[in-house]
Amino acid sequence: FVHGDLHPGNILVTRDKDGQLGMNLLDCGIVVEMGESDHKNLINILGALVKKDGWLAGKLMVDTAKHKRATEKDVQAFCSGIQRICIDDEDENFLEKVGDYLADICTMACTHKVKLESKFINASLAVEIMEGIATKLYPAMIVQDIALPLVLKAEITHGLRKGEAEAKAWVPKIFGGRGGEEKKE
Q1: Mean pLDDT, the chain, integer
Q2: Can you tell me whether residue 31 is helix, strand or coil?
């Protein structure tokens, strides 16, 4: 489930007696249920973006949408735009700037009449909000160190990767030689 009305007013950050921060989601009256195929589609798209395969990510976004209005020319332009985001992000990690790219993806979708799956948008917006909160609470946190192992595990779970060995082969490429160790704080 994804909170369907996630905005800062529905998030309460608390501190316990030991000084540890906690986050509480409020007003969960609207939720978006993601079935296994929705989850698999989201993981496919995230996996493609993490691997800097913007063309595949764009194509997956188009192919998984229930309603299609875009011409083949629009689809090509949209996929090229997603690939451009990945190329421009070459020295960065997509997982560190999901929020920055979501607006660009939505703008391109509107420009090229690509209908994005609403569950993808809901999940992306939730990630963007959570990313903003997390980086304010823990400025030194490296999102990819936490998120990438989750994406890789989900790919394996859904059979999108053959196994851990294949997943581990991607880690040095994505982490730029850092090995993917989580920073302890």
Answers
A1: 78
A2: strand
What tokens does 65 get? 């949408």
Q: What percent of the chain lies above the pLDDT cut of 90? A: 16
Closest CA to 100 of 81, 123, 120, 124: 124
Whole-angstrom distance, CA of residue 27 vs CA of residue 59:
34
pLDDT of residue 77: 95
Q: How far is CA 31 from the centre of its chain?
A: 18
Residue ranges in the chain whose pLDDT is less than 50: 175, 177-185
What pLDDT shows up at residue 96? 64
